[in-house]
Task: inverse folding
């Protein structure tokens, strides 16, 4: 199965600087997206530190493994890499007054023979388009999501909440961070979308799905997503990573049971 990658960022309509950052290493199936936070452009520093660090360090580890590493080994490498990046950002925030309080969200994907190993921290998201169905495959680390989980808000009510940007987990704000990791099966034809909340806050899932279905080209799809978010107000920076899995599905083996399926 082959993979096609594309990424783009946009400052949006309301911000002067771009605190979103993306990095790709297609040779090892690696995609990284971060949405920074903090004053004096510190959010921009945090997100760029994170994406650069992970792409360099995890990318080098994946290259050295030669594609033979198992998902369990890659999990450990991702945990270690994110922990090291977290400490670097935390230390920078605590030694430079201009960077005080900076941090960043993270969504990180590594495509393996076993599937997509997806890690995330905060409220940047990952979606999978399979056929005509779009599914969010990450779960926000946010106050809003906790309220939904507790039954205090419905998803419909959450769309109008004032607490959308309150994350409960971020990289660099404490001396340790927990990366949430899950392995997802990848099928030929799947399209994966990683994005910052500058996209997901502006567009609902039905709109995201339709825009992706309307464009076969990943660059055109990314631009359509960004344009639509800006048309809805563009209240934040917008970051998009798109990955398409291409190839034929494996033929089903013949069942050994001689009387058909049990």
Result:
């Amino acid at each position: 199965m082959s993979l096609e990658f594309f990424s783009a960022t946009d400052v949006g309509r309301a911000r002067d600087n771009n605190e979103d950052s993306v990095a790709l290493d297609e040779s090892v199936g690696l995609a990284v997206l971060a949405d920074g936070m903090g004053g004096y452009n510190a959010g921009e520093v945090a997100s760029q530190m994170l994406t650069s660090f992970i792409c360099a360090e995890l990318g080098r580890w994946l290259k050295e493994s030669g594609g033979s590493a198992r998902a369990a080994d890659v999990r450990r490498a991702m945990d270690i890499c994110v922990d090291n990046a977290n400490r670097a950002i935390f230390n920078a925030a605590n030694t430079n007054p201009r960077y005080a309080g900076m941090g960043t969200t993270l969504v990180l994907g590594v495509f393996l023979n076993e599937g997509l190993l997806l890690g995330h921290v905060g409220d940047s998201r990952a979606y999978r388009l399979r056929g005509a169905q779009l599914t969010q495959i990450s779960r926000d680390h946010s106050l809003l999501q906790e309220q939904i989980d507790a039954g205090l808000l419905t998803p419909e009510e959450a769309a109008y909440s004032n607490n959308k940007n309150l994350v409960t987990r971020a990289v660099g704000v404490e001396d340790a961070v927990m990366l949430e990791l899950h392995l997802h099966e990848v099928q030929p034809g799947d399209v994966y979308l990683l994005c910052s909340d500058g996209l997901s806050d502006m567009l609902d899932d039905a709109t995201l799905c339709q825009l992706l279905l309307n464009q076969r080209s990943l660059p055109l799809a990314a631009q359509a997503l960004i344009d639509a978010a800006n048309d809805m107000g563009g209240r934040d920076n917008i970051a998009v990573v798109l990955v398409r899995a291409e190839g034929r599905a494996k033929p089903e083996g013949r069942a050994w049971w001689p009387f058909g399926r049990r």
Observations:
- The chain has a mean pLDDT of 91.
- The chain has one domain: 2-246.
- The longest strand covers residues 2-10.
